[in-house]
């Protein structure tokens, strides 16, 4: 067979193997417009992301076992009833930011497991009665930013478990529109902000029972009246009236303050309400704990805060975005507060004595202001636990700034102008756990971390100007677990700079060019990220420092990143020698050549390997031999031209492979046969060739049921020029398998074999085939007769040869018809003219109770007589009845019957009548014939025929 024929034959066999998958497209793992993300347990949660794909319809290839679908930011205009019909396990559906104007009733009827439905930012105008049918387990429904102006009274009847409803940014006008929602048994949170309500009055609501609502948001409505006069909200805890009353001042009408006895949160940002009204409001809330008054400058000028500070239950006060001079001075009497937010108030200083009285204050936020130093009053806040001074103009920290804030647990000083730290600043911070001082101008730490804070857990000093880390720089931070020292200005790190960080788990650091591996003492370090700003070397230590390598033997994640576009950082194998528990290694832009094959020989537990922006064109497959448990491999932007190296090593555990932004033109699909666990493959942004060299890969993508080829339907062709811009999977691969010479070979071979087979059958089996054919015809006829139940027309059909016709008319008919009175069927007399002979024979045999075969040598040689006895014998064995009578006109030895195997078989199994042996006693002969004709339709075992044994037996 020619080579082309062999390859085509192999492809045909492959198609036969893949045929079940082709016939079941739901098994295909590569979705046309979405990507699949499995959780840790592939049998548990399946997340499908179809966002930002310009979809105009819901994809029809979503996996049936999907639990979460993201379809936001597309071009969907309508949801059809069948779109989600098979997703019975779906728990979260996001349809945000589309153009949906209509949803068919019952579209979600099969989503019984759905708990979250997000249809915000669409164009719905009304909610119909059966829109949410089937969503009995839905707990969160988001319908914000639509054009909803009508809600059917039965729209929420199926949502028996609903707890949160978001209806902001719509066109609802009457409070009665939300009555169906308030009747929900488990409702806890309702947002109707940014609608067209002009009043909210509970007297307009007719509820059969009180609502369980806890959070009510009616902000950004043109409310003129907010009235609660009926006890329908006994559990209400939070009310948001921000920016209400813009069309006219808001009137607060709650005559019985017991109706709001559980209110703990009230938000009045930029709310136009008369001073008298808000005074009445605040005085009627006996349980208020959190009050938000952003953009309330006018009322603050009218001494609103004096009233606020008299609320004995108030614990949290938000005054952000209020540009009021000396704002803090108005808070002198707010001694009950535990949380205070003064961010974005353009404050230049915190007035002396303004917060001194707040002995319970635990959290103070003054970020995004114009403070130039730490406010003096902070010193007096001995109960303070969280202090946020980020994004100010603080340039200096003194030893007295935090002298009494010994309970501080979190301190944020990000984005200021601090230049140095003194040793005394944090020495009393025994409880401090979080310290963020990134984006400052610090040039020296002044040994501030040599002595503490001792319980600090997280420290961020990134993007500062410190150029040198001295020995023992952080030795006082014995509890530290996270340290970020990323900076472009680090020039030198001394040998024992990290001594004392015995509990450090995560270190993010920038290293200088001549840095030697000096992480002595970091025995619990699990995550190390190293940034290089320019080319250099990451080298093993000097001989006398070699033991330091083994101090990071707990390291599990190691990341090296270089921002220099011309870096060439050599990765010495000894640097990884101590990392025997390393599970993830990332190298971004570190070298102009592939790593040495023995790089990971000491890291057998490596599971995740990421090398990006590195030239791996000369990669040696031996690199993977020491890491047989590799599960994740990312070689993006590495100038790879082929994936054949994957088939040369054992990567049986690999499940995630990303090789984007490379130079792959042809993909050999057989490579993936060596990756039995692969479930995720991303080959995006490669210059694929659209010709027969990729035909196998295309077929594999379309048919494989295990590996998801991410965004495969978006892969485009780069070669040849005529195919540029076309989709790879749209390439017609059928032409690749059409080998004309192979087809001609197969055709000619089949023709020769058919000719030989036909000759053999004609020569040796023609009678057997003919018999089988007529047997089949008899079977069909018999089936029809049985169904019709037609009575017999004749007593017997006489089968004889024309040469014996004289005997039939001279001897048989006078006796059987005239003397005995039998009705006989003779073909010369009774066959219907113009009817096919075989039909006449079949009708005669099945239309008669018996068949009499008048056998002679001429009879045996007759083709038609042979067919008649074959048909009669089939009826004999089919009906198992005594229907066949054999009359021999001549003595015929058995050996002469051999060529007529059917006749010989019948003679050997049945008795028969012989005319020559009757001699002069013909009366006995015809009496036996009469007895045979008189027998009923009993089984053949009751045969009444008698006669001698066949001649020759």
From TrEMBL:
Transmembrane segments: 737-757, 764-781
GO CC annotations on file: plasma membrane
Keyword Glycoprotein: yes
Localization: Membrane
Entries under InterPro entries matching the protein: Cys-rich_flank_reg_C, Leu-rich_rpt, Leu-rich_rpt_typical-subtyp, LRR_dom_sf, TIR_dom, Toll_tir_struct_dom_sf
Signal peptide limits: 1-28
Topology within the bilayer: Single-pass type I membrane protein
Protein name per its UniProtKB record: TIR domain-containing protein
A GO BP annotation: inflammatory response
Residue stretches making up the TIR domain: 792-933
Molecular function per GO: signaling receptor activity
Family that this chain belongs to: Belongs to the Toll-like receptor family.
PROSITE patterns to which the protein is assigned, alphabetical: LRR, TIR
Keyword Transmembrane recorded: yes
UniProt KW keywords: Glycoprotein, Immunity, Inflammatory response, Innate immunity, Leucine-rich repeat, Membrane, Receptor, Repeat, Signal, Transmembrane, Transmembrane helix
Entry-linked PANTHER family: LOW QUALITY PROTEIN: TOLL-LIKE RECEPTOR 13-RELATED, TOLL-LIKE RECEPTOR
Lineage summary: Eukaryota, Metazoa, Chordata, Craniata, Vertebrata
